[in-house]
C-alpha cells in the first residue's frame, strides 16, 4: 500500500515550558515527506513565555489543547483523544524527527499488520557530547526488563484505545516503557528503522533524568502492575535479577582494585591507627 495515500498521522506534542525548543519540534514535523499529518500540541500548564511562543506558532498547529499541569501521560492521552489519525506519533517538545521518519514508519506498519510500533535509531545529545542509540525493538520478551524502543515513535490509535492509553499516575517517568509493555501484551512487535531519524536532547530537566532518580520506585511499580506477566516469565525474571547481583559484585570488586580505593586506603591508615589508640 502507498504510504502517501490516506492514513492520516496525528503527531501529539506535550509541551511544558519548552519555549526555547517547541518551534524546532514543530518544524521537524512540518518538513516531513509524508503529506497527511495533523499536529496536536498540548500545553500542559506552561508559563506565559511558552504560551506566547505557542500563539506565534498557531498557524502551524492544527489543534492546541490547554490544560493545567497534569504530566506527560495525561497530556498525551488528551491529545490522542482529540486526534483523527489512524496512526499516532508521539514527540516531546524538546526533540525532533528527521524529515523521512513518518513516511518510512507508516510504510513499515502498513507492510505488516502485526507491527505494533515503529521506532528508529537516535542521536542522543548531552551538554558536551553525543552518541547514537540503537534500540533493539522486538516482541514482549524484549521489553520485560528494559524499554527496547524510543518513547517517541509511531503506533496505531486503535491499539492505544484498546489498552486504555498511557498510565496517568506515572508522573516520574518510564510511562512510555509501561505503555509499550501493554501494547505488546496484545500481540505483535516493535520494528526499528535502522537509521538515525530522531534527535533526543538529554536535558537536566528531562523526564529521563527524573526517572533515573526514581528508578527503584518505578521498577517496583511496573513489576507489581504486571506481576502476572513476570510470573509467566519467572525464569527470565530470576535470571535478570541474578545478573543484576553479579554486575553489582563485579563493580564492587573493580572498586576495591581501583587506584583511587588503594590510595584512599593508604591515606586512611594513619587515621585509623590514631582512632584505635584513642578509643
From TrEMBL:
Keywords annotated in UniProt: Transferase
Keyword DNA-binding in the entry? The reply is: no
Keyword Transferase on entry: yes
PANTHER family, per database record: GLYCOSYLTRANSFERASE, GLYCOSYLTRANSFERASE 2-LIKE DOMAIN-CONTAINING PROTEIN
Question: What is this protein's name?
Answer: Glycosyl transferase, family 2
Which organism does this sequence originate in?
Answer: Nonlabens marinus S1-08
Q: Where is the Glycosyltransferase 2-like domain?
A: 10-126
**SUPFAM superfamilies to which the protein is assigned, alphabetical:** Nucleotide-diphospho-sugar transferases
Q: Name one GO molecular function term.
A: transferase activity
Annotated InterPro entries: Glyco_trans_2-like (IPR001173), Glycosyltransf_2 (IPR050834), Nucleotide-diphossugar_trans (IPR029044)
| Alphabetical list of Gene3D superfamilies matching this protein | Spore Coat Polysaccharide Biosynthesis Protein SpsA, Chain A
Q: Write one Pfam family the protein is assigned to.
A: Glycos_transf_2
Amino acid at each position: 500500500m502507498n504510504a502517501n495515500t490516506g492514513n492520516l498521522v496525528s503527531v501529539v506534542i506535550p509541551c511544558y515550558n519548552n519555549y526555547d525548543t517547541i518551534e524546532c519540534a514543530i518544524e521537524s514535523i512540518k518538513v516531513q515527506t509524508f503529506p497527511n499529518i495533523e499536529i496536536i500540541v498540548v500545553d500542559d500548564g506552561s508559563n506565559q513565555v511558552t504560551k506566547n511562543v505557542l500563539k506565534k506558532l498557531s498557524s502551524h498547529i492544527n489543534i492546541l489543547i490547554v490544560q493545567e499541569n497534569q504530566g506527560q501521560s495525561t497530556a498525551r492521552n488528551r491529545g490522542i483523544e482529540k486526534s483523527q489519525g489512524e496512526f499516532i506519533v508521539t514527540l516531546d517538545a524538546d526533540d525532533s524527527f528527521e524529515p523521512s521518519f513518518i513516511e518510512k514508519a507508516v510504510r513499515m506498519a502498513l507492510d505488516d499488520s502485526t507491527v505494533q510500533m515503529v521506532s528508529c535509531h537516535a542521536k542522543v545529545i548531552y551538554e558536551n557530547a553525543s552518541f547514537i542509540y540503537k534500540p533493539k525493538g522486538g516482541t514482549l520478551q524484549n521489553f520485560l526488563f528494559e524499554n527496547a524502543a524510543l518513547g517517541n515513535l509511531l503506533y496505531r490509535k486503535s491499539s492505544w484505545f484498546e489498552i486504555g492509553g498511557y498510565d496517568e499516575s506515572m508522573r516520574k517517568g518510564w510511562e512510555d516503557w509501561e505503555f509499550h509493555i501493554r501494547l505488546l501484551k496484545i500481540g505483535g512487535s516493535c520494528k526499528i528503522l535502522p537509521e538515525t531519524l530522531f534527535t533526543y536532547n538529554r536535558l537536566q530537566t528531562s523526564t529521563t533524568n527524573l526517572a533515573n532518580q526514581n528508578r527503584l520506585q518505578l521498577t517496583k511499580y511496573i513489576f507489581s502492575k504486571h506481576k502476572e506477566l513476570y510470573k509467566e516469565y519467572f525464569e527470565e525474571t530470576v535470571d535478570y535479577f541474578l545478573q543484576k547481583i553479579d554486575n553489582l559484585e563485579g563493580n564492587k570488586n573493580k572498586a576495591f582494585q581501583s587506584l583511587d580505593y588503594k590510595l584512599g586506603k593508604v591515606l586512611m591508615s594513619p587515621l585509623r591507627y590514631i582512632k584505635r589508640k584513642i578509643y
